[in-house]
Design a protein that fits this description.
CATH architecture of the largest domain: Alpha-Beta Complex
Number of helices: 10
Number of domains: 2
Mean pLDDT: 95
Distance between the termini: 11 Å
Shape: globular
Order of helices and strands: EEEHEEEEHEEEEHEHEHEEHEHEHHEHE
Structural class: alpha/beta
Family: Belongs to the zinc-containing alcohol dehydrogenase family. Glucose 1-dehydrogenase subfamily.
Organism: Metallosphaera yellowstonensis MK1
Protein name: Glucose 1-dehydrogenase
Catalytic activity: D-glucose + NADP(+) = D-glucono-1,5-lactone + NADPH + H(+); D-glucose + NAD(+) = D-glucono-1,5-lactone + NADH + H(+)
CATH topology of the largest domain: Quinone Oxidoreductase, Chain A, domain 1
Strand content: 25-35%
Enzyme class: oxidoreductase
CATH superfamily of the largest domain: Medium-chain alcohol dehydrogenases, catalytic domain
Helix content: 25-40%
Length: 359
């Protein structure tokens, strides 16, 4: 089958021979679309040192943002041919309690694998076989928008973590929503925009921050969902400060200066990762965080439960914001074109997807 692989630091479209038998509880899936993200590009560039191929292979099949269609089912499977499905990315170690109860996103041993990232082949290929328990079914009417579910699942998890931890105090407003709370999101890529949509749905007043004016697509999306785009080179970020700060950039220089402006009992979600920058945190800033009871949360990956909730949000948004999801997918490329796109973003890109439907 055709697959996009990384071998010796180079991406290529190749014919690969993978022995994947359809056993009990398993499903064969035809790949429809793959999303391309910073993780994929980090693997290709070699900047993500934790990425590795499966044992016994000298290459890794990329792909962890996936929308597929069930092609064939094995015994003991409730899925049906034609179902739209999205695979969960992380697979448990089989040892720690979190992994044994389906919360491999909190694996304690570090022995997990992640499809298309570390230790397991991904889904940037024509077909793949997986256990049905690793697949989340989506309504067919979502169509290609289902490829946004994997990144959205990470957003859902992060927001749920903060909401749970903020139960330490009375954080909701008098109307039982978060309409009296301000959220500032650093970064306007796909993750930043998905955070803005999720938090607006919860009732937050949302500000999307970047060090530049919005692109036409970013402007359309933020306005459509009722968020405000802030070019921080021209105006000061929201005052007196946010109740929730979300960093999707991974650049300390973007979020550290804002730490002392977070409101009392506020929270910070650190989501972005780059590993390319240093920024000093002063003792005075630490004192402010301590004295104001500010919560700091690092979040990565998602559970199947988060994927399911993300599917509910996509269904809701397709009705509530009929044009927004379509604008999130700014480019579609063929598998052959994807090899070059994996080396850098396209102009005006929010989300680029690999289209396998015409091959």
């Amino acid at each position: 089958m055709k697959a996009i692989v990384v071998r010796a630091g180079k991406a290529s479209l190749e014919e690969v021979e993978l022995k994947e038998e359809l056993g009990r509880g398993m499903v064969r899936v035809r790949t429809l679309y793959n999303g391309i993200c910073g993780t994929d590009r980090g693997i290709v560039s070699g900047s993500l040192k934790f990425s590795r191929p499966p044992q016994g292979f000298d290459y890794l099949v990329l792909g962890h943002e996936t929308l597929g269609e069930v092609q064939e089912v094995g015994e003991g499977v409730n899925l049906r041919k034609g179902d739209l499905v999205v695979p969960v990315v992380r697979r448990g170690c089989g040892e720690c309690l979190n992994c044994l109860v389906g919360r491999q996103d909190f694996c304690e041993t570090g022995k997990f694998t992640e499809i298309g990232i570390r230790g397991a082949h991904g889904t940037m290929r024509e077909t793949f076989v997986d256990y049905a328990e690793n697949l989340v079914v989506l309504p067919r009417e979502l169509g290609e928008y289902g490829v946004l579910l994997e990144p959205l699942s990470n957003v859902v998890k992060a927001v749920r973590e903060v909401e749970y931890l903020q139960g330490r105090s009375l954080w909701r407003c008098r109307d039982s929503t978060y309409s009296c709370r301000d959220a500032a999101i650093i970064g306007s890529g796909p993750i930043g925009l998905l955070f803005s949509m999720a938090l607006k749905t919860m009732g937050f007043n949302v500000y999307v921050l970047n060090r530049r004016p919005p692109s036409e697509v970013e402007k359309d999306i933020t306005e459509a969902v009722g968020a405000r785009f802030v070019d921080t080179t021209k105006e000061v970020a929201p005052l007196p400060g946010p109740d929730l700060l979300v960093d999707t950039s991974g650049h300390p220089s973007a979020f550290v200066p804002l730490l002392d402006r977070i409101k009392k009992n506020g929270a910070v979600i650190l989501f972005g990762t780059t590993g390319k920058e240093r920024e000093e945190i002063t003792a005075e800033q630490v004192t402010e965080l301590v004295e104001n009871n500010v919560l700091l949360v690092g979040s990565v990956n998602a559970s199947k439960e988060d994927f399911r909730e993300g599917g509910n949000l996509l269904t809701l948004w397709k009705e509530e914001y009929p044009d927004v999801l379509g604008k999130m997918i700014t480019h579609k490329v063929s598998p052959g074109e994807a090899v070059n796109v994996l080396s850098g973003k396209l102009k005006g890109e929010i989300k680029t997807v690999v289209d396998w439907t015409n091959g």
